[in-house]
Amino acid sequence: MKKTILTIIFTYSGLIFGQEPSQSSYFAPVLDNLSFSFESISQWYLNDSYVDSQGVNSIGDEKLRTTNYLRLDYSLDDNFSAGLQLESYAPENLLNMSNLYNKDLGIATYYLQYQKKGTSLTLGHFYEQFGSGLILRSWEDRFLGINTALRGIRLKFNLTENVSLTTLYGRQRKGFEISKGDIFGVNSEINISNIFNVSGQGNFTAGFSYVSKNETYERIQNESEMEIPEMVNAFSSRINFAHKNFYTNIEYVAKSKDLRLNVISAANGASFSESKTFKGNALLWTVGYSQKGFGLSYNFRRLENMRWFSERSYSYTVTNQTNQLSINYLPALVKQHDYSLANIYLYQTLPGLMVENYQDPLIKAGEIGQSIDLFYKFKKGSIIGGKYGTKVNLNMSYWAGLETKYNDPDPADYVTSDNLTYESDFLNFKNKLYSDLNLEIRKKWNRKLSSIFTYINLFYDKAYLETGFYDKVRAWIGVVDNTYKFGRGKSFRLELQHLSTNDDARNWVGGTAEFFFNSKFGLYINDSFNYEESNNPVDTKVHFYNTGFSYAKGASRLSINYGRQRGGLLCVGGICRQVSPNSGLTLNFTTSF
Amino acid sequence: MKINIITLFIILCGFTYGQEMLPNIELKTLSNSTISTQKIASENELIIISLWATWCVPCKNELDAVSDLYQDWIDETNVIYYAVSIDDSRTSNRIKPMINGKDWDFEILLDQNSDLKRAFGISTVPYTVIVKDQKVVYKHMGYTPGYEEELYNELLKYSN
Fold first, then answer.
1. Helices H / strands E in chain B, number of each
2. What is the distance in angstroms between the Cα of A15 and the nearest Cα belonging to chain B?
């Protein structure tokens, strides 16, 4: 193990410091067209009395784990290109990541592409998004440990000057294999203003998409005669309109009938209803107005039964925490925060249909909600603006579960039947799950000192959102973040946070100190401390501390972090998952050429 | 096997440093039309492409800092600054109000499914490159307070 660590460190130091320009390289003509990038994340889990006291040996035998990505792209000429990505999970994937990624070394994705003007043909793996992704998005996020690339064929071309089309067929990546479901899709983007030559009256575009998934289903019960649809189809139509400072977008998605997920109980896992099928739909509307120094936007979204996977069994969240094999993209539309205490109670989207069986069954059918964003800059020279101007952002959001009524002809104690049906209200915001108000003020005091003040007031229904018997949380968070520049890239940043609540784990205090010696090298230390006794056994009077450094040069960056991670719900980028607590050393290296 | 890959990697590193072509990727404009990186690089001799996101505090710090100096940079180097947002649908509706609310004068483009980010081979933002005559001549990952001075000094090297 020591040898491995030494090798890694040695390699990295060689990479960072050894980049000397070699103008007269023999390989230069070939290598000019070759680009590659490498990323490595290694974690070494250490013993920690707090982690041990949580009573779960979640780490297992492999204390040192490393994940590596090597991506190569080669362009033969202006038209042809090819590439591949190698991935290594040795000896296994990092803690709390999906075990689908299970090879010591393997070819993860590869592609061959022909591209000329507006036309492109791709064979192999590709990433694609139709519209905002409500209907289809294949993507990669290494930090979240997700890769839903499609493997197949994709053709993009311009039908006319103002109409572009994308057609694709593929199967989704499933670790180092591919999923059983076939995915077929067509997308069109139409520039209506240009077609009717009315660009003067604003910019008007439209888009239409069709996506289908084909997957067989093996019945567990044979009581029902109902035919189970192997093909699930979805249609999306959307319109974007912008004129001068005003803009609006609207998108509607309809998804055809599919089986419903039935969570019998936490221990017994999930099954599917085999007697009734259910449709899904999504509606998204954005409207905004902005001009110099002022911006306002409003969003509305309603999702019903929109979770969609290339294999049905992956729709069960408990066994698929990291959203592998997801066909579409349904992020939580709440403001994302960088500050640690602001990420403890973060809304995660609830787009799926699922019945949880208690004495009274809970029908979770989807969500409805809205958010408002306001940006304003107080001008330089005004009283509030001062010498440099003051920037203010106000953000509010409100999210509710869909209000439903169910009908079950054959109920039993604690179990609903496969004949259950339900109805949902279209516009009912009563079942509140989350709301927040965020105020952020950025102020530059002088050439050297600047501050960011953040205030957050939130409500979080932990019982509904995390499943179980928890509190409803009302909390407010204050953050003061100051940066002082010494010049020549040297700077110091001090951030102080406090979370106040009488619910759940009660109050927290946190802070970060960060010092950059120059624009390349920095050190930091931070801590989040729950300083009150509470009924929450996980987060009572515990320090979650981290310290480390980062070094960046050109397109390379090396960082090392030592610390303790909080267990429970970890939210990054609007996606939350249950993680087990751990302590240890993390080394992250990334470079590209 | 792993060691072999790393060895291969080190050897390659020795050769590949230097100027490289800007990857040709299609991006969206704020009015939902498509524009390629090749096009913006061929129309302007000297550009900066900076990948950012509405949720990334260092990115916003960088853009705020450059914004204060941008007019001087244009006057002195003729540079055009393209701020390419990697926001996806979770946060993309915040882009328009934010850039206006913050009074930024950059050219804003959208990389909604991270195609450019992937082509640059990076996993975090901000990431800033200087492109001269369609070649990437300078790259920098991350933002630290005061870095804009260094970026300006680099820019001066490549302006005529």
1. 6, 8
2. 7
